[in-house]
Amino acid sequence: MRNRFDEQLFELNREIIEMGAMCEEAIAGASKALTTGDVELAGKVRTNGNVIDQMERDIEGRCMKLLLHQQPVAKDLRLISAALKMITDMERIGDQAEDIAEIVTAMNGHTMEGMKLVEEMARETIKMVTSSVDAFVKKDVELAKRVIAQDDIVDDYFSKIKCGIIALVAENSADGEFALDLLMISKYFERIGDHATNIAEWVIYSVTGMHKEV
Amino acid sequence: MSNIITVKDMCLWYGEHQALKNVNIEIPEKSITAFIGPSGCGKSTFLKTLNRMNDLIPGVKITGDICYEGTDIFAKDVDVNNLRKEIGMVFQKPNPFPMSIYDNIAYGPRTHGITNKMQLDDIVERALRDAAIWDEVKDRLKKNALGMSGGQQQRLCIARALAVQPKILLMDEPTSALDPISTSRIEELVTELKEKYTIVMVTHNMQQAVRVSDYTAFFLLGELVEFSKTDDIFSQPQDKRTEDYITGRFG
């Protein structure tokens, strides 16, 4: 019986890794579309959003089945409950990548090229998502802790960009819509950082049994 | 919550074979403690030692201390019958005496000298009520207990144990011979009983330990590996052997 359980847990792990990879791809795509103004790429990110949603439902179903059939305890219970929480954050990351892509589609060729800070913020956020998924794959508590610490860097970028936007509006009030788009986009990246932080916290819980919030 | 039983460095041998090795445990009163572990790990042996049931087995040697309410249960002046009145036992297989339901319950109080009919009636009713079986049997108290269902027989045995007003109830796999409905009735009953009694039960059903017990002790090869609050044992076991056993990856 436990061999089969182990196989199912292995499958669950694999699916989470796959969903994490999809999220990384979505946010990397959204960020590239943002700098290049590639509307086609932005469209692809939006379509992939549905795939991520479906993955969330599939993994949720698998977790429910495992809870029902195997009545897991100890590290197995922690893994499955952490998985249930993590996929919600992953799905939100996918949604926010979609939101960024949607703004890109509506910007009519207006690009963020040259907006160094936004590019850097995007890069830091992608790093957080990649590392949080990596931490899960490797059950690496130290890496998860680094992800949590990195959130401060992303938050700093958001504050800096906000100040930049205020200056931009003061300078050229005619470009108000672009300024708002910019603010929204950086806010989405900031939220993605928060979700990556949540994932990292659940990784720590799944390994150690301790959750920061509890 | 204070501890009703304190065990220090207890070892037990069956002849040459050491069945329990340096067991140390403190059992909190008015709570449910579950003993888990693979067959032959010593948990039933340990349970039986708590009211000196092992005295009856030839070749048994016990060292270390077991204190019940501060008194050494192996002290020379301890009356074993009295000890077993205070620390009752319910077995895996329901074992009613081949007599009426009433006489089954009255048996214990009678041997302890109670003969007054009204007093016995009162004890029988209270014990059957406490064991949540009164409503089912109140109209057939004179019927033979062997005619009851397995689940009813087990609750009757619990009532019989309660009739002598024990403080502790030892239960050796009390539901392993019962169907799921009878099992859940016993589990509910046990949860109610902990208001008044201390319950110590051996169970092979891990989910049962999670559902009903407040504390869990894990035994392996005669050793008490881990003892802690049930929620802690089943969410964050401290010992790798406990983790392997409860997650079913033992051996």
- CATH class descriptor name of the domain at 3-95 and 165-246 in chain B: Alpha Beta
- How much of the sequence of chain A is in beta strands? under 5%
CATH topology of chain A: Methane Monooxygenase Hydroxylase, Chain G, domain 1
Biggest pleated sheet of chain A: none
Please give the radius of gyration of chain A in angstroms: 19 Å
Spans of chain A with pLDDT under 50 lasting ≥5 residues? none
Helix content of chain B: 25-40%
Rounded radius of gyration of chain B (Å): 18 Å
- Pair with the most extensive interface? A-B, 13 and 12 residues
Derived from helix and strand composition plus strand pairing, the structural class of chain B reads: alpha/beta
Helix content class of chain A: over 70%
**What is the string of helix and strand elements of chain B?**
EEEHEEHEHHHHEHEHEEHH
> From the 3D coordinates, which CATH architecture of chain A would you assign?
Up-down Bundle
CATH fold-level topology of the domain at 3-95 and 165-246 in chain B: Rossmann fold
Q: How many domains make up the 3D coordinates of chain A?
A: 1
Return the CATH class of chain A. Answer: Mainly Alpha
Q: Tell how many strands the DSSP assignment of chain B holds.
A: 10
Q: Give the low-confidence spans of chain B.
A: none
Strand element count of chain A: 0
Examine the secondary-structure arrangement and name the CATH architecture of the domain at 3-95 and 165-246 in chain B.
3-Layer(aba) Sandwich
The separation of the N and C termini of chain B measures 36 Å
Short recap of the structure:
Chain A is mostly helical. Chain A contains six helices and no strands. Chain A has one domain: Phosphate transport system protein phou homolog 2, domain 2 (Methane Monooxygenase Hydroxylase, Chain G, domain 1, Up-down Bundle), CATH 1.20.58.
Structure description:
Chain A is an all-alpha fold and 214 residues long. Chain A has helices at 2-36, 39-70, 74-106, 116-138, 141-171, 176-208. Chain A has one domain (2-208): Methane Monooxygenase Hydroxylase, Chain G, domain 1, CATH 1.20.58.220. Chain A has 6 helices and no strands. The model of chain A has no long low-confidence stretch (mean pLDDT 91). With 251 residues, chain B is α/β, with parallel strands linked by helices. Chain B has a domain at 3-95 and 165-246: P-loop containing nucleotide triphosphate hydrolases (Rossmann fold), CATH 3.40.50. Helix content of chain B is 36%, strand content 27%. Chain B is built from 10 helices and 10 strands.
